[in-house]
Fold:
Amino acid sequence: YVPEAKDSSTQFVDSRIVFAGQENSAHLKFPAGENVSTYVSFKNKVGGAPSEVFIVAAHINQIGNSEAYVQNFTGVRSPRSVKGGETVTVKFDFRPDQLLEPQDYNLVVRVFFLDETNTTSVSVAYNNTITITDPVGTDPKTVLTYLIITALIGGAVYYFSSNNILAALNKKSATKKVESSVITDDKTYNKSYVSDEHHKFREQIIKDAAQRGGSPKVSRKASPSPKKKN
Structure:
């Protein structure tokens, strides 16, 4: 929530900001998805009427278009009464969205306060270009490349594994057909798959079977006719 306010550019108030860890940076860079800590000061100069700071808020917009808001940050409520000649400091943290495209943006940080007429006014603490970089420890392009390579390797492994399984099944099926053909029937008997000992054993079985099944020849002589008695 950002209240409606008039811009206060009077000589009696001033706002400044310090970015923790980047106090001496000429150009601010923030990783997407990482917390950014700041300290916003509001100074009511000598001679200024008492004011009450009540909220600090910020947003990111496209460079060159102040109306093209990219991300709004939740304001921090911090009601502070600031008399003339006093300064208050408010800690303000914000986090650029992790999905922000790495590029330059415009960051605006504002302090909202009530002036002597009880009117909401705003003092700009920061309005300048920043750079949003890739998330810490991740580069989307590199991650995408790794995913593509992993998918290609997985596809290749699946392809060759499938072919090996099919080849093994075909070989097993062929082996069963060969085994079924090795019988004692001469029409389907394949000698190349049987050892010499089995050849001899088979021939002996066939020979013994022939001997047991053969009918012995019996010679029958005609009985002599009985002689007639004289």
